[in-house]
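Appendix B. Chain record.
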Amino acid sequence: MMREGLREVINREPDLQVCGEVENAQQALAALQKIAPDLALVDVTLPGKNGLELVKDLKTLHPGIVLLALSMHDEALYAERMLRAGASGYISKQQPPAELVRAIRQVLDNRVYVSREMSENLLQRFSGKPRANQSPMEILTDREFEIFQGIGAGRSPKEIARQFHLSVKTVAVHNANIRKKLKLKNTSQLIRFAVEWENPGRALAG
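Structure tokens predicted for this chain:
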């Protein structure tokens, strides 16, 4: 349904046309072997390999493609990560269709697109000034953040290791670093915190 809505919005523009659609990262990588789009809209949340990993892969394999990240998640947590990975912009799914079109045109014009609030946050970060209401998640590295999300989604260390092509020992090291950065005492606290963060309002018994 989401893709149908995006397709309708984009195809209404006389100079824009959707040339392909896929459901996951694997299909995206395969599709780009056959078609050469000027721009790819990449959802942050994808089954299997997530959008952050996909953006990194696409920029490595197809450096000329323009990437615009699309998400329903907190811009403060994802926008900078996606920009560092190689995306030219980040837009929330809650934005109106006209803003999506504006974002597409802006990144196709070789300019970066983020919301005004995010732009101010980035400038504040680069200036070295502390920012109010900063999420503790922002201090995690991309890999630590991805593993934290996996924990919150209920995946075991073996499943997380398999997803990111890591050893279980490496995942354990990342878990220890996450606990230290988030000031959590043990694995049980980490699991509880991750599950509650991924599922606001959900209580974890035990």
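Further analysis of this model is presented in Appendix C.
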